[in-house]
Every structure is written in C-alpha cells, then in structure tokens.
From TrEMBL:
Pfam families: CARME (PF07942). Keywords: Methyltransferase, S-adenosyl-L-methionine, Transferase. One of its GO terms (molecular function) is carnosine N-methyltransferase activity. InterPro entries: CARME (IPR012901), SAM-dependent_MTases_sf (IPR029063). Its EC number is 2.1.1.22. Belongs to the carnosine N-methyltransferase family. The lineage of its organism: Eukaryota, Metazoa, Ecdysozoa, Arthropoda, Hexapoda. Transmembrane segments: none annotated. GO terms for cellular component: cytosol; nucleus. This is carnosine N-methyltransferase. GO terms for biological process: carnosine metabolic process; methylation.
C-alpha cells in the first residue's frame, strides 16, 4: 500500500515528466525541420533547384540541434541530486516513459538555451549590464562595504532564472538566495553553478529554433559558449531561515503573476522593516492571454498606486530603461523593452496589515505561490535549496 501524500506523488510525476521532456528535445525539435524538408519536397522541380542552399541550411540546423542535445544528458545526470533524491527514492516510482512529456515542455527546454546565453555567455554581457547592472549598483549603494558586514545582509532574488543575478550579488559577499519554480531552469542552473569547471567549456545554439527574420542561416546558427565565469562555491554560512530579507531584487519578474498585487504584498511581508525592494522590468503580463487564468493587467501607474497602498515608500523610479531579453543580435526582429526601474522601502515602523485569510505559517510556506507548479528551489552554492513557491 502506498501511504505517500498526494502532493509528493504529483511532484515526482512532474519531475519525471520534465526529465522525459528534456530527453525528447532532439526528436521533437527535429520534427520541425523534417516537416520543412517534406514541404520542400512537394515543391516544383525548379523551386527545389533554386532552394538547394535552403535544403543545405536545414541539414545544418539539424546538426545544431544535435549539438544542443548533447548537453542534455550531462545535465540530467545531476538532476536527481538537486532535490536529495526526493523524487526517486521509493519503490512506487514510475518510469519517465509512463508519465510522458509535457505539452508546454519543448518551449521551456528551447528557452533554457537562450537563457544560457543571457546569464552565462560573453554575448549576454550587454543584456546583463542593462538588466542586472542597475539592480546590483543599487544594492551596493545601499549596503556599502565600509558600513555593512555584507554576509549578514540577506538578499532574495525571486524568479532567479539561471541564477546569474543572484550569483553576482552573492559573489560580492552578500547572503543571497535565488528562488525559482521552473524545474527546467533549476536543473540547468544547478549544473552551471555546481558542476561546470572550465570557462567556455560548452557551446550551444540559443536561436536555432527561431526560423523567422534571419538575414542568413548563420544568424540562426549563432553559437555561444558558456560559462563565461566559473561560479565558485563559498564555504561560509550564507543564508538565514527566518524568511526576513534586507533586500528583495526582482528582474523581469513581477509580471509573472496572474495578480501582481499578490506579489507586491508578499514582497512587503517578507522584507524586514526598513528593507528594500529593487525592481527592473516591463509589464509583459505572462498570464494575460491564458483563457483559464484569472489574470489582471494593471498599468504601471496603477501598480505604483498599489505599491503605495501596500505601504511601500517609493524612493526612486525611472521609466524608459532600455532592456533586452534573450535577444539574437543578428535577427531582423529586435525587441527592446522600455522597462521601469524602481526602488521601494518598507518603512521602519509599520502597521501590521492582514493580507490573506491563511494562517501565518501557510503564508510563510508558500511565499509567492500563485500556482502550484512544482518544487521551488534555490540554486547554487549561495542559493540554498528552498521548498517555497513564489
Ligand atoms: C522572465 S524570467 C526572468 C528570469 C531572470 N530574472 C532574468 O532576468 O533573466 C521570470 C522567471 O521567474 C520564474 N517564475 C515565474 N513565476 C514564479 C513564481 N511564482 N515563483 C518562482 N519563480 C517564478 C520563471 O520560471 C522565470 O524563470
């Protein structure tokens, strides 16, 4: 008889299907190219003749997909370690084949390659300077080394992606925790942060799945090497468990909630009195087009009112901050966000505001949980494993 609680079983199922989806990357991505090859075959003879170079390009795309795929088994070898084997230590474990792949999974695997470019390649340095630079500078300015023992300053980075922002903050001596609920990101960031040993050891093709807006096929096959630096583990204590933070740093994150107000309230609640919230990003509300989600999309003006109503004091606010996100520099389509950058402070003396009807314990446990997706975990040497969901 299996006495395992339902939640654990679901998490294990989810974990296995993520692994299976990673493994299906090659096959599923090849299907797209094979479909193009079939389309090409149906064309009149002279079209085919004129499109011989395109046919050759498709062959080369397949080679890039193979190369991306060769990274996946390396990463998956360590995936079980991340959660102390909690997903594979019982006799009732189902095989990955049994649980199948996830419909949204291919996209997630493909976007991990782009995120590797943003967070861990030299080519991503410009994006990181735009997006992470202002946040890091603000943290440094508020906690100067001469005045603070930075190892006692707890910084939380919700929606940490592949962990570079959290890593940068931690490498300057802060106690920093990255929180991420996307298992695809967690599995890959664990590998980069804990296993990668040589600079620029690996090569991937981040934009190989972007078939449109290419001047030449080589632009689709632009490769990057990673990691551009080796994240070194630090032995000291870096984390406190009281869920009280001196600083919360969010980058391209607050629009990931169906209800941004809930994120703002949570950030307020977990900050220490006098604590700082630093944010940079657009309002590309992620749930906006999802029919089954109760998504709201307030303008930034309304968001600022909410921020005040929650109790924050906005100390700095800039709009029109030029930022890119996983952008192929060669593409004919260039997205650039006019992001907002703001710094808010929770007043030193605050009135307790009751924000939800849940018990305080439950509130603490779930932190930012808006959607029970899977185990949220913190990543890397400075980024302790945390089971909280944002
Ligand atoms: C747009 S990405 C930004 C990643 C990173 N901050 C950056 O700037 O590259 C948003 C990230 O937040 C994560 N995320 C979204 N909702 C979350 C939640 N409720 N709890 C934890 N992470 C979340 C996503 O999985 C994704 O990795």
């Amino acid at each position: 008889m299996n006495s395992e609680p339902n939640g654990v079983k679901e998490e294990r199922y989810y974990f296995l299907s993520v692994l299976h989806t990673f493994k299906s990357y090659r096959e599923q991505s090849m299907l797209r190219v094979q479909h193009k090859e079939k389309c090409l075959e149906t064309l009149p003879y002279h079209h085919k003749e004129w499109l011989l170079k395109y046919k050759e390009d498709l062959e080369n795309f397949k080679k890039c997909i193979e190369k991306n795929y060769s990274f996946i088994p390396l990463v998956l070898k360590h995936a079980h370690t991340i959660f102390d084997n909690m997903y594979c230590n019982d006799s009732t474990s189902h095989s990955e084949q049994e649980v199948g792949t996830l419909s949204e999974g291919l996209d997630k695997v493909q976007s991990v390659f782009k995120q590797l470019m943003r967070d861990w390649s030299e080519l991503g340095a410009a994006e990181r300077k735009q997006c992470y630079g202002p946040i890091i500078n603000e943290i440094f300015a508020n906690f100067p080394e001469e005045k603070f023992d930075r190892s006692n300053i707890n910084v939380l980075v919700p929606g940490a992606g592949l962990g570079r922002l959290a890593f940068e903050i931690a490498s300057k001596g802060f106690s920093c925790q990255g929180n991420e609920f996307n298992l695809y990101m967690l599995i890959v960031s664990y590998y980069v942060l804990n296993v990668c040993k040589k600079v620029n050891e690996y090569k991937v093709y981040p934009w190989i799945h972007q078939y449109c807006n290419n001047i030449k096929a080589d632009d689709q096959m632009l490769s990057v090497r990673f990691p551009d630096v080796i994240p070194k583990p630090t032995p000291e204590k870096v984390y406190t468990t009281d869920d009280e933070w001196h600083c919360v740093a969010t980058c391209f994150f607050i629009d990931c909630a169906p209800n941004v107000v809930q994120f703002i309230e949570t950030i307020y609640r977990i900050l220490k009195p006098g604590g700082l919230w630093i944010n940079l990003g657009p309002l590309l509300y992620h749930y906006s087009d999802m029919r089954n989600e109760k998504s709201i999309e307030p303008s930034f003006k309304v968001v600022t009112q909410v921020i005040n109503n929650v109790g924050f004091i906005m100390e700095k606010c800039e709009t029109g901050v030029k930022t890119k996100y996983c952008q192929n520099p060669k593409s004919m389509l260039q997205y650039e966000y006019d992001s907002v950058f703001f710094v808010c402070r929770k007043p030193v003396s605050v009135d307790i505001i009751e924000t939800t009807e849940e018990s305080p314990e439950l509130q603490k446990q779930y932190l930012f949980a808006n959607k029970r997706d899977h185990s949220g975990a913190a990543i890397g040497p400075h980024f302790m494993l945390s089971s909280s969901h944002f």
